[in-house]
Amino acid sequence: xxxxxxxxxxxxxxxRAQTRHQLKQDRFSQVTMEAxxxxxxxxxxxxxxxxxxxxxxxxxxxxxxxxxxxxDQQDRAASIELNQxxxxxxxxxxxxxxxxxxxxxxxxxxxxxxTQAQKQLQAIMDKYPxxxxxxxxxxxxxxxxxxxxxxxxxxxxxxxxxxxxxxxLAALGKFxxxxxxxxxNRAKDAIEIYKQLIAKPTRSVGKxxxxxxLAATYQAAGLTADAKQTYQQIQKEDPSGPAxxxxxxxxxxxx
Length: 255
Hints:
By secondary structure, the protein is mostly helical. The protein contains ten helices and no strands.
């Protein structure tokens, strides 16, 4: 009897639980249907607005596509002009007293060549300011500034390049900036940059490349022990490669 009573009690509890669950489901369904109906009603009443909104989205998407095409075309044009700058930078410097040869680009001095290239690079930066090529132009603009002895301009430009979202270009900017720091007797700042480049090498600035410059900076600053340690690290990481051979030669010079 007790067992039957207990069994009926359990059944009653189960039925009540199912009933509550069903009621919850019904209420959920009712709320869901009401929400769906309201959405349908709103959509029906505002169908014109929805169509207009859809058109606006399509127009924006098209505008983005046009803008992307525009920037791509701008970048292509900038690249052509940057190639011309490369020809300027590669042009020979005439020996003293030699006149300019017809049909051949040459310059009376390295400073004249750097000055001309700097003008061309500035024109690219001004004409195509938001292109990737303009970022590369800024890098070369900084190098020409350094060649002309304007370390302040070179440093400011290279700091901008070092912050570029283009990883390889940013690494080149940091590498060149470290050279400016070394030339202006800021070895500590140069060392910090080289360490950053070693920790995160790129295709443009490899690890061993930064390590050699770090060791050279240590050596120039009189930090011989640090220089030796850096060269030894290069040997350890690439014992059979050309970098290890170069490091061995540098270690011989330090003895």
